[in-house]
Amino acid sequence: DKVIEPMGDFQQEWVDACKTDLKTSCDLDYAGSKMEMMMLGLVAYRAEKEIEYYAVKGEVTNDANANQFLKRTYRDGWVING
What we know:
The chain has two helices and two strands, in the order H-H-E-E. It has helices at 10-19, 28-47, and strands at residues 53-54, 59-60. It has a two-stranded antiparallel ribbon.
């Protein structure tokens, strides 16, 4: 079996990126899109069907009921801005 070569000192890469204009090898744009894809897979699982997602509006276009899985209602006093 082949072993992946070491990625280097990724912690130092992150610190250097915070202090300079360096772009990391796995930045938040990349990681964010992968996380969105994974979460949409969970939405499709809960909707029990294949979904079509319109990223600009952030909504499922072929199943209005699936949109309920894209947001959460928080208890009074707990707010997430953004």
